Automatic annotation (TrEMBL):
<protein>
    <recommendedName>
        <fullName>transketolase</fullName>
        <ecNumber>2.2.1.1</ecNumber>
    </recommendedName>
</protein>
<dbReference type="InterPro" id="IPR005475">
    <property type="entry name" value="Transketolase-like_Pyr-bd"/>
</dbReference>
<dbReference type="GO" id="GO:0004802">
    <property type="term" value="F:transketolase activity"/>
</dbReference>
<keyword id="KW-0786">Thiamine pyrophosphate</keyword>
<dbReference type="InterPro" id="IPR033247">
    <property type="entry name" value="Transketolase_fam"/>
</dbReference>
<dbReference type="GO" id="GO:0006098">
    <property type="term" value="P:pentose-phosphate shunt"/>
</dbReference>
<dbReference type="Pfam" id="PF02779">
    <property type="entry name" value="Transket_pyr"/>
</dbReference>
<dbReference type="GO" id="GO:0046872">
    <property type="term" value="F:metal ion binding"/>
</dbReference>
<dbReference type="InterPro" id="IPR005474">
    <property type="entry name" value="Transketolase_N"/>
</dbReference>
<comment type="similarity">
    <text>Belongs to the transketolase family.</text>
</comment>
<dbReference type="Pfam" id="PF22613">
    <property type="entry name" value="Transketolase_C_1"/>
</dbReference>
<dbReference type="InterPro" id="IPR020826">
    <property type="entry name" value="Transketolase_BS"/>
</dbReference>
<keyword id="KW-0479">Metal-binding</keyword>
<dbReference type="GO" id="GO:0009570">
    <property type="term" value="C:chloroplast stroma"/>
</dbReference>
<comment type="subunit">
    <text>Homodimer.</text>
</comment>
<keyword id="KW-0460">Magnesium</keyword>
<dbReference type="InterPro" id="IPR009014">
    <property type="entry name" value="Transketo_C/PFOR_II"/>
</dbReference>
Length: 396
């Protein structure tokens, strides 16, 4: 039986360099400055009589409704927030080792919905993956023309456009905090928008799930190997990779409070145990010492201690935040005298020499992944307790 398919295309025509009488709609306006003469001609052509960098009084009056006196408002907000934390301390999301193991994408959803209750400007959504990214605000509907009070945005499968929209929201008003989500590997489609977030000092929160080879059967096309390193290399951006619930909550606190730089949260699909010793305060330092008994690194440390080795486990949630700490703090976490250092991460080892030093070793994956259950992939590619122990013994 024949099927009729109807295709509708919307065409939007724009003019590059609009307003420039001599260079509009030409390649020369793309990569070069207009020049003083053409700037003057453009100003006259657009009927703009004001001197450069002048903001007319009517424009100031309009925006004063949206941007009250900044310093006073910020001080008032900080005081109210501190008072709220004292009064409602029990409302904070915390996790203990007795809490069920869970994927950090699920813990992310718990945090988003808790934040939505106290942050009226928090809004966002996913690139048609809300059910996988776990980014739905459950007590709100969809933001539409007729429902502007709702806060779930259906961006559709358009990652670059999604990032661009969030940049606009973040820069429009200091009262709005946008977040957007997709699989971590698909940041490739929106890298330009994320870079503009960093350049523009737009505090967008990028919720990126399915952060490693641990997503399993979707295979190497969906498994981000090099993405952590690439964003750690990008200026003015916070790359956060929490290991459990407390670190996920800490990552959201950092992301919400950083209004002048974007944050990327790399979150797991697979379940992770909630570790003893992790904390929100530790996340704010970027890296901190923990005592754990569950994760790969901690299990390796436990076995090495049984052999009489002195071992400490450090959780590195954010390299950028750790770099900003005092020299004394960094020395307390990574003593210069200890050169036997081993890193472990489900991702490329590129960049870890900065942490482990020239005498250290990095355990990771420097090639594409494969399609298989998470546990099998980790074993096949050597991201295991045994690999960490072997690397440590080579250094001792």
């Amino acid at each position: 039986m024949p099927v009729n398919l109807l295709l509708s295309i919307s065409q939007v025509t724009t003019t590059i360099g609009y307003g420039s009488p001599n260079k509009a709609n030409s390649y020369s306006v793309h990569g070069s400055a207009l020049g003083a003469k053409e700037v003057d001609a453009t100003r006259k052509n657009l009927g703009w009589p004001h001197e450069p960098f002048h903001v007319p009084d009517d424009v100031k009056k309009h925006w004063s409704r949206h941007i009250p006196e900044g310093a006073a408002l910020e001080a008032e907000w900080n005081a109210k927030f501190a008072d709220y934390e004292k009064k409602y301390k029990d409302d904070a999301i915390t996790y203990t080792p007795e809490s069920p193991a869970d994927a950090t994408r699920n813990q992310s959803q718990q945090n988003l919905n808790a934040l939505a209750k106290v942050l009226p400007g928090l809004l966002g959504g996913s690139a048609d993956l809300a059910s996988s990214n776990m980014t739905l605000l459950k007590t709100f509907g969809d933001f539409q023309k007729d429902t502007p009070e709702e806060r779930n945005i259906r961006f559709g499968v358009r990652e670059h456009g999604m990032g661009a929209i969030c940049n606009g929201i973040a820069l429009h008003s200091p009262g709005l905090i946008p977040y957007c989500a997709t699989f971590f590997v698909f940041t490739d489609y929106m890298r330009g928008a994320i870079r503009l977030s960093a350049l523009s000092e737009a505090g967008v929160i990028y919720v990126m799930t399915h952060d490693s080879i641990g997503l399993g059967e979707d295979g190497p096309t969906h498994q981000p190997i090099e993405h952590l390193a690439s964003f750690r290399a990008m200026p003015n951006i916070l790359m956060l990779r929490p290991a459990d619930g407390n670190e996920t909550a800490g990552s959201y606190k950092v992301a919400v409070l950083n209004r002048k730089r974007p944050s990327i949260l790399a979150l797991s699909r697979q379940k992770l145990p909630n570790l003893p010793g992790t904390s929100i305060e530790g996340v704010e330092k970027g890296g901190y010492t923990i005592q754990t008994t569950h994760q790969i690194a901690a299990k390796a440390a436990e076995d090495l201690r049984k052999e009489g080795k002195a071992v400490r486990v450090v959780s590195f949630v954010s390299w950028e935040l750790f770099d900003e700490q005092s020299d004394a703090y960094k020395e307390s976490v990574l003593p210069a005298s200890v050169t036997a250092r081993v890193s472990i991460e489900a991702g490329t080892t590129f960049g870890w020499e900065k942490i482990v030093g020239s005498k250290g070793k990095a355990v990771g994956i420097d090639h594409f992944g494969a399609s298989a259950p998470a546990a099998k992939i980790y074993k096949e590619f050597g991201i295991t307790k045994e690999a960490v122990i072997a690397a440590a013994k080579e250094l001792l």
